[in-house]
Amino acid sequence: MLALVAALLSFLLMGAAGADAGAPPPAAAPGAASVKLGQRGLVAPPVVEDVEHMCALLTSCDSLPIPPSLVPADFATCVRQVASDMTSASAVAFSLLLRECGLGSNSCSELRTCALRGAKPDTCVGRGRQTLAGFCDIDGRAMSCFHDRVQAVRDCPRGSEQCAVRQGEAFCTLGACPEGIKEGAPPVCSASGTRILRCERGQLVSLDCTAFGLVCGTGPACVPPTAPCSAGMQRCEGNVSVSCYVGHEVRVDCSAAGLECTAPNTAGLPPMSTSAVGACFTSAPTAGACDPQAAARCDGATIRYCNFGKPRSYLCKSLGFSRCGAATGGGVR
Predict the structure, then answer these.
(1) How far apart are CA 94 and CA 110, in angstroms?
(2) Which of the ends of the chain has fewer CB neighbours closer than 10 A, N or C?
(3) For position 204, what pLDDT does the model report?
(4) What share of the chain has pLDDT > 70, as a percent?
(5) Sheet holding 310-315, edge to edge
(6) What is the mean pLDDT of residues 173-189?
(7) Residue 198 to residue 212: CA distance in whole angstroms
(8) Within 10 Å of residue 11's Cβ, how many Cβ atoms?
(9) Would you say residue 162 has pLDDT above 90?
(10) pLDDT of residue 300
């Protein structure tokens, strides 16, 4: 099992951020809203209802071509984790797979189709019976298979890359490593400032920062082309939280998710009456607060759970599921 997890992580990092950055779906092409926001160092976090829909699909749909390591084990944990991740400064580089396919899908079928990136659902039949297996399909996608099922897909041609297989792993590459980039050397920015490059098993692999609307900066890392800042910096500009991500300012519009930007008190801590959600805060209810650590429970076809101190409920039938599955920690079925 550890070998499988390690192989999956290697696949995710090979030439992309997650299984998707080097080959974004059509919605993430230059000009898309998320890319335009990234170019300005802005984050518009989703409302909790949209996060709930995504987590209902992620935790309940079967045969998803998404590595299990990307999906929290239960519905309530998924909502809290994704809401925090997509409301933080680091959300400028949040997984395109989850951002575009997760938030943009309204059914299991739509989510599978988006994550497959044009590959056939049965393309892994007969592959990966014992361990993770990679191969290049006829259209040049890098496929990762396990137990006859698609675990992850990268559409290499969309990122102007080609598929290659080394030691049973398929990945996207820009070709053979050039003289100036040695095997095992630290990653570097491309001359254009658009990609992070490194030499891996004789092949030049990359992370395409432009897929997020970002550029290659110090680290190297994908960063927004915004003003420099110091780590730990945080301030409010109205209801926009301004903080530092890898040395560059990022603005998180707290109001987009119905949250607040709260300046720290003299001790550097937020008011006790608030709960942090990424770079923003939500006010604790004056009455009826719940225990954030309490497990989700089923109430008929409804999941009831605690989200940052506030009671929430999610109707499983809103996405066509028939019931709530208590055995999965409040997952839907």
Answers:
(1) 20
(2) N
(3) 96
(4) 85
(5) 297-299, 302-307, 310-315
(6) 95
(7) 19
(8) 24
(9) yes
(10) 92
Confidence of residue 182 (pLDDT cuts 50, 70, 90): very high
Pairwise CA distance, residues 117 & 114, whole Å: 6
Three-state secondary structure string covering the chain: CHHHHHHHHHHHHCCCCCCCCCCCCHHHCCCCHHHHHHHCCEECCCCHHHHHHHHHHHHHCCCCCCCHHHCCCCHHHHHHHHHHHCCCHHHHHCCHHHHHHHHHCCCHHHHHHHHHCCCCCCCCCCCCCCCCEEEECCCCEEEEEECCEEEEEEEHHHHCCEEEEECCEEEEECCECCCCCCECCCCEECCCCCEEEEEECCEEEEEEHHHHCCEEECCCEEECCCCECCCCCEEEECCEEEEEECCEEEEEEHHHHCCECCCCCCCCCCCCCEEEECCEEEECCCCCCCCCCCCCEEECCEEEEEECCEEEEEEHHHHCCCCEEHHHCCEEC
pTM: 0.84
Per-residue pLDDT tens digits for 251-291: 999 999 999 998 765 555 556 667 899 999 998 777 778 98
* Residues comprising the chain, all counted: 333
Contact (Cβ atoms closer than 8 angstroms) between residue 333 and residue 321: yes
Measure the CA angle with vertex 121, ends 115 and 126; round to 5°: 125
pLDDT tens digits along 212-225? 999 999 999 999 99
Q: Phi and psi at residue 195, in whole multiples of 5°?
A: -130, 150
- What is the C-alpha to C-alpha distance for residues 206 and 209, in angstroms, rounded to an integer? 9
Residue type, 22: G
Half-sphere exposure of 264 (CA within 13 A, CB side): 12
Instruction: In whole angstroms, give the CA distance from residue 196 to residue 217.
Output: 9
